[in-house]
Amino acid sequence: MSTSLILTVIVCYFALLFIISYFTGKNDSNSSFFLGNRKSPWFVIAYGMIGTTLSGITFISVPGWVGESQFSYMQMVFGFFVGYAIISRILLPLYYKLELTSIYTYLKERFGVYSYKTGSSFFLLSRTIGASFRLYLIASVLQFAVFDELNIPFYLTVLITISLIWVYTYRSGIKTIIWTDALQTTVMLSTVIIISYYLMENMGLGVSDVFSEIKNSDYSKVFFFDEWSDKKYFFKQFFSGVFMAIVMTGLDQDQMQKNLSCRNLKDAQKNMFTFSAILIFVDLVFLSLGALLLIYSNKLGLLVPENADMIFPNIALNKGEFIIQDPNFHQYLPEFVGILFLIGIIAAAYSSADSALTSLTTSFCVDIIEFENEKPDKQIGIRKRVHLLMSVVLFCVIILFNLINNDSVIKSLFTVAGYTYGPLLGMYFFGMFTKWEIMDKYVPIVAIISPILCFVLNLYIDFGFELLILNGFITFIGLYILRKSHNWDLE
User: Fold this and answer.
1) CATH architecture entry for 3-406
2) Residue 479 has what pLDDT?
3) 10 Å Cβ neighbour count for 147?
4) CA 22, 28, 32, 33 torsion: positive or negative?
5) Model confidence at 446, in pLDDT bands (50, 70, 90)?
6) Burial of 481 per CB tally in 10 Å (0-12, 13-18, 19+)
7) 309 CB contacts (<8 Å, ≥6 apart)?
8) CA neighbours closer than 13 Å in the CB half-sphere of residue 485
9) Residue 483 exposure: Cα atoms within 13 Å on the Cβ side
10) Distance between CA 337 and CA 465 in Å, rounded?
């Protein structure tokens, strides 16, 4: 496909985003930026959260996981559903009762300032590295697909990417993102469905035939009960899914900020239930696409070449991940499907990155500098400067990843960032399910020691996603040790 055609489609896509931003960004108040004036339609949020949850990495990686772990990922997805139900029934009522803008304000009211700053700082660290890592991967794909041919350097690709996000989010933040996420989710899902359709057509399969083809393949196993030490063991994956949903959504400002923009608690709960139900179907579609890709590529004899690291530098790919990006594979599909695939990746990446940037701005303003202490006429200016600062931070981290130029180091940083959600899990569980007061000033020490211990343990014991649960448990024990002696007994 020609570079000019790809650029034309990309420009048209972003034109749509800017049109949405124009109509939703006429009010640039802080209430609009942070919570959408609490008037966001719950069904639009539920639909848009699909794109935010999946992200560009999922768009590429979930189909690729099928070759390594079959459909075992669905075990985690079922756990997600339970986790979202817990968020709906326990966390959302608490957040709405306290009328929070940042969910980490709860830690200040429950424990004190040190716990509050620790929780928000851990979110900022984790979300900054996580969002940068995702954008880095997508920028690498765009660099190969489009910008290398135009002799545009990587740093400029990243600068364009970050600048575009900043332009359509800096005025009304979450109010704009609610609607741009809906567009991005539509593009992403349409891409997956269309690619699947053409794979089915090329293989001469109908809808019913697809189920039979996948069922009779080596990729269709969902439940694993055979060996408890296996990372795919059902209960490990299921309960990891439950707790990952709680921390990655319920304790994450990025996702909860959308829920808090609903008109009321009831709408927010309807949003969570609808979103969690849709997500089961969407993940099943993604995994089915992965199985079809592998089945079709096996028939074509496509293999991951020895120079795959040169085609997609700094990204270690399994077979499924490589094939879905391989230009040799796309020649077997109509040209517009390849374009849709690229737009689908962009949509998935941006739906995650734009909300991350807004939530980083929100948390920094509300939790770190506590700008509500400033005069109202100064708060909007401060928010806009912080939004620009967060954009610069993302840009710098992505460029740093590119300079590191080592896949294992970058993925390790991403993994370490994920460890910071464990202390949040322990802090919230301790706060909500006990009545103990704690020595607040020592909480940062516990929050730092817990992920370090988990990292060391993981060097000797091969943990899977259940490491998150262990991390939260260690934090819980640490807070128990910090409880004040005069208030040991629950009232």
Assistant:
1) Up-down Bundle (1.20)
2) 95
3) 18
4) positive
5) very high
6) exposed
7) 315, 316
8) 0
9) 17
10) 34
Query: 């996580």: which residue's tokens?
Result: 130
HEC readout, the chain = CCHHHHHHHHHHHHHHHHHHHHHHCCCCCHHHHHHHHHCECHHHHHHHHHHHHHHHHHHHHHHHHHHHHCCCHHHHHHHHHHHHHHHHHHHHHHHHHHCCCCCCHHHHHHCCHHHHHHHHHHHHHHHHHHHHHHHHHHHHHHHHHHHCCCCCCHHHHHHHHHHHHHHHHCCCCHHHHHHHHHHHHHHHHHHHHHHHHHHHHHCCCCHHHHHHHHHCCCCCCCCCCCCCCCCCCHHHHHHHHHHHHHHHHHCCHHHHHHHCCECCHHHHHHHHHHHHHHHHHHHHHHHHHHHHHHHHHHHHCCCCCCCHHHHCCCCCCCHHHHHHHCHHHHCCCCHHHHHHHHHHHHHHHHHHHHHHHHHHHHHHHHHHCCHHHCCHHHHHHHHHHHHHHHHHHHHHHHHHHHHHCCHHHHHHHHHHHHHCHHHHHHHHHHHHHCCCCECHHHHHHHHHHHHHHHHHHHHHCCCCCCHHHHHHHHHHHHHHHCECHHHCCCC
CA distances from 190 to 285, 335, 344, 360, 462 (A): 11, 16, 8, 29, 38
Q: What is the token pair recorded at 11?
A: 């420009």
For the chain, give every domain's residue range. 3-406, 420-491
Give the type of residue at 146: V
The pLDDT tens digits of the residues spanning 289-330 come to 888 877 777 776 654 444 444 434 443 444 444 445 555 555
Q: What is the mean pLDDT of residues 216-223?
A: 83
Average pLDDT over residues 148-153: 84
Predicted pLDDT of residue 200: 81
